[in-house]
Hints:
InterPro entries: CAPS, MUN_dom. It comes from Ophiophagus hannah (King cobra). This is Calcium-dependent secretion activator 1. This protein is mainly α. It has one domain. The protein contains 5 helices and no strands. The chain has helices spanning about 1-10, 20-35, 40-45, 50-70, 80-85. α1 (about 1-10) crosses α4 (about 50-70) and α2 (about 20-35) runs antiparallel to α4 (about 50-70).
Amino acid sequence: MNIVCTWLTDRMDLQLHIYQLKTLIRIVKKTYRDFRLQGVLDSTLNSKTYDTVRNRLTVEEATASVSEGGGLQGITMKDSDEEDEEDD
Length: 88
């Protein structure tokens, strides 16, 4: 996650291409889920680095959805687990 955070920080002034965004969203979500399934504590998973990456991808996702008009094809940072928690 540190590498992704550094890579995104180096490109702070540049908007991500739609394919970069889709790929990064998939990587970050899969990595988070896999570590969570392995029993890594939420306090470890929800680090400042992860929050930084997640916030940047969320902003990029919003920008892409406005400018591309649906180019993400259903890929989103919104996790189905989070939707279930909000309904409780």
